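Appendix B, example 12.
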Amino acid sequence: MKFYESGREQQRDAAARRVSERASARRGHEAALASPGGVASADSPERIAKRVGRLGRFYREGDVPDPAAHLEKIINTVDYLGVRYLDAGVAAARAVARVDIRDERGTPAGYGTGSLVSPALLLTNHHVLPDAGTARTSVAEFDYQDGIDGRPLPSVVHRLDPDRFFLADPELDFALVAVRASPAELAVFGHNPLIEAEGKAIIGEFVTIVQHPRGGRKQVALRENRIVDVADRFLHYATDTEPGSSGSPVFNDQWEVVALHHAGVPAPEQDELGGFVNEGVRVSRICHALREAELPEEQRALVDQLFAAVPDAPPALLAPAAAAPAPVLLAASAAQAPAPARAAPEVSFAAVPASVLDRAFTVSVPLEVTVRLADGHAPDGGPPGGGLPESREATAIDPDYASRGGYDPAFLARPLPLPVLPPELAADASAELRYHHFSVVMHRRRRLALFTACNIDGKQAQRPKRRDDRWILDPRLPVDEQTGERVYADNDLDRGHLVRRLDPAWGASEAEVKAAVDDTFHFTNSTPQHHAFNAGGTLWLGLEDYVLDNADNLDLAVSVFAGPVLAADDDAYRGVRLPRQFWKIVAMAGESGALSVTGYLLSQAALIADLPTEEAFSYGAYRTFQLPVRRIAELTGLGLDPLVKADPLERTEATSVPREIVRPDDLVL
């Protein structure tokens, strides 16, 4: 999707023309500001009078300085500010959110900034949300910022609701949209009202911008940002902004919104401004457009509420009350809201080298669980000691693929959609292949799964014995887009289940359970794994036993996402590049509805340099690691945002480097 970049470029080009056209006027204003008259001579007497009159609202009676003698003091061009400036700024910043722009498939297309301007409506740029369709698939993410202790706050995500209200103006580059949340859920953030009255800012005054530059955590461009020109519909000011700042509110020192930031353009002829001039849409002009818009009765009522929400009191009093209810978190219920956690250091690893995996780290998380497996318990229902099961059941695949429901995103207490595919992966991805209780999406060129997703119902789980099995190709895909029997013949490679056969083994009848188990024997659910790993007692298989056992014992609903790490430098063997690492994500929801998501990586500490001959094929020992889900997203390129938000490691003070899991006691949930 190119709309965000093209829309931003169009607005930037238009702003550049206006900045160039007003270069002479801007230089005149700067000369006036540098003259003995200063601010008093830089703007018109009418505008200055309106500004002085409005500032009287922020002084006690008898404390208003004489405008003729003390204009500099009135507008605070000196560096002294009352402490109220900090308190009011914190309140105003709470209403500012990151706008996550997504296409119809949920793929991230860009980021902007927006602010609540009424109890129900959020304001951003038209080039951020150009139409109702884009708004419908995008979300507002509040509290995407660090707390006072330097640790990231748990963010709160709300969908937008353009069906309730959406109004956009490409000329003024604004979009106003409803947020899909209850009044109580939004009240905790307060709002920054739009004030129609002029007199909120004049040339020479400083402004502050609260923004999400480049889509990052909330930042403040603090006050060293002087207004250098006021045109009919736009303000020009010098400050630091970056992509992602589009839609940010521009505040005066009293934390009134004076403009909607929308573009920054080069001004190389003015080094004194840092070579850049920024442009914001004047709020009074946005208010006028809202007044004049033809709207249905229900939407007009929301606009009327926006204007009614502007009292005589200063904006800080519109902030959330101290006793306001706690925000509803995406990753946990309000009753179990986690404490803010320190951000994990950014660690980039396109592949995890053995030198990194060999290191030991200590991870502290809000909840630590110690698990011990019963003596003699073997993974996958096998005999003690981890050998191959003694008996197998015959596999009989149901030929009616239309009857398969596949993975259910609404299976847990909180919805978890399938991973989102970026464009570079979507081009090679198959359609979702639905089976009984699980789904697979294939990488057609690699002939292996991009990912699998499976629901586990502990209340109905069964453990059927394993007899003779038979792997089959999925008739819905061409044969050359699957890895079949030839790759596994006459070597030490096993057909490794991605969705383990017992994971979907649940249902109301034995026939339903058997159909689900049989479905796991499709080659689409297989990946080449060394026999020593697949048949042995590795903790990777023990991990799934642990999850399934807990689902049985605690009646938890469980969803498991898994797949290989498809690296570009994987070794080729019989026409298939063999993965060296595998990942797994486990999502569990308890009766309280609280969601916990943990990520794991299976890797090899030692790999042979290459495969000189088929007979020499050999791989080193596999080792299991727990790591943040965010790192799995980086390794695979998959969009896993809902899973990342529920990962307890996101709320820890720990490093993001993988942590080896040697025994069940090491598991952290």
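The first strand starts at residue 96 and ends at 102. The radius of gyration is 30 Å.
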